[in-house]
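Fold this sequence, please.
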Amino acid sequence: MPEKKKKHAKKPAKPAASRAEENNARLEELKYEEIHFVDSTRPVWNYSLFEDIDIQDFQQGTHYSIYDLFGAHGLEVLGVDGYYFSVWAPNATYVSVVGNFNHWDNQAHPLYVRLDKSGIWEGFVPNLPKGEIYKFHIHGFKGANLDKGDPYANYWEKRPNTASITWDLDYSWEDKDWMKDRKGANSLEAPWSVYEVHLASWMRPDPNDEETYNSYDFFRENLVPYVKEMGYTHVELMPIMEHPFDGSWGYQGTGYFAPTSRFGNPQQFMALVEAFHQQGIGVILDWVPSHFPYDAHGLFMFDGTNTYEYADMRKGFHPDWNSYIFNYKRGEVKSFLISSARFWMDKFHADGIRVDAVSSILKLNYSRKKGQWEPNEFGGDGNLEAIAFVKDLNVTLFRDFSDTQTIAEEATDWPGISKPTYAGGLGFGMKWMMGWMHDTLDYFKLDPIHRQYHQDKFSFSMMYFYDENFMLPLSHDEIVHGKSPMLYKMPGDEWQKFANLRLMYAYMFTHPGGKLLFMGDEFGATHEWNYKSELQWNLLQFDPHRLLKDCVRDLNLLLRNEPALYQNQFNVHGFEWVDLNHRAETVISYRRKGKKSEDDILIILNLTPVVRRDWKIATYGKSAWREIFNSDSKKYWGSGDVFNPEPEVKLIDKKQDFYEINVHLPALGAIVLK
């Protein structure tokens, strides 16, 4: 498990409300002094929430709740309501707040620059209400004039508009039971079955109009019960953070502290998270600290120069995504990023984050040819400050929220991704098992007659499984850009395609590790995923698709109900091969083991379209077995002709407690015995 404590780690800052009370007290003391802290006749009062220690920690990259200070905060100052604004623009010569409230006059509400050379501009605008749109007008480097959204805003205008909105995050949470007990649900010894969702395209008001969106309230009323019905333990939301371009799927973000306004306001998103929790479902958020877009209102060239991104484009530009890479060496950027991750757990009760594109963060030569990158000081290809950032990220989150998880999407053989930092690792809780995904899909795409020659590809995952805490992902990336939907990756006629898919899912759900399945895969979508439309819900009127969905539901329930499938899922005691010696017949069997021997289950996969009756399996320790799952059942659109209510069991070695089980194997079928 990742460590939960780090010496000398920065404690969370006091919330803005308590800071405001302290500052008000100081103001009262200074009220009749010769030097006034506030000139109440000015449109912006010279007012600050920052203390010296905040500036020091922010600059050193160790202020992990900086969102309590930066951005727009509704306060009462000397009996007057309004909003306090602060922004980091170290190369600016002038900063003001502009919006409808001052007719976008960039001279009307100038902010004050701190005299400590921190590059922080701040001030209090009295009588400004909640719900006002605003931007920061910045006179920047070399005379640049920029209107920028607030990097710390909690709410933005709905795209294509780009202004931030004054808002508060007050909410009366009603998920105390979940929060109290979620340590068990998020444990590495708990079942993990994740439903990956792109909210906009899960379901639309008009299926053919990409400009229509359902609301957070709609998803609370429809998505939550669906995920509950399907038996998933967690939902993973593709980036919910504000982003300007739908076609980025959320992975090119501008609002690192705001849920997208496409579906409603922050409180409505809180209610969605709360509804999941009330149904016993954890919420994982996709989080993207690897790159950001060049939109004029965003982080790029924030004050006229490279504020958030590396100035050296060998490190600062991402050639794959035409975007810009955070400067992980800069303390202020590191504080920004770690605070963002922490913010979602602190303010929105997220149960974990899935960190996107970790490989691109760690490696200087990611997607770069020779001559396009510069080695680190030791001659290697690792980005040393990025590695330090990732370690601090995980240490901080597990210290402050020990009952959550961090999950890395990392596609290389970088060692120790999910090992603790004190053991030389990066400290993530889990890592996506991309190798398993590629090998499994390659294997199941084969005509069954050829699978006997590729069994090593099938079994290879267990050769390195214990190197990390792996999650098995069948994600959105596997059903786009011409890769075909999951159903049509399978060979054979229609019946065989569905049988193969049920078989592959049965293998996935009985393999050690966490599980992740993208929306639509559960009922066999026949089109690739298209973010502009919605899932093919009409397919559920047809038995093959509707009953495949039932099969996935029952696999989820099997996972949750059988301790052998999760209690030892990340250690060597939870799995063993029973039979890998029938390549020609392409029958494979393995055992999953819980903490109690009576919980053990036996999985047998028949990977060809040939029925095999009276198949003999030799194993130890049990004199009676029963079938608890059969992917060929009629209730899943299988043939229903081959099943094993009470398999015949014969003792073959009393001393070794060894038995022979006689079973019938359906064509392209998986059976689970207990």
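Residues 572-673 form a domain with the Immunoglobulin-like fold (CATH 2.60.40.1180). The chain is about 25% helix and 20% strand.
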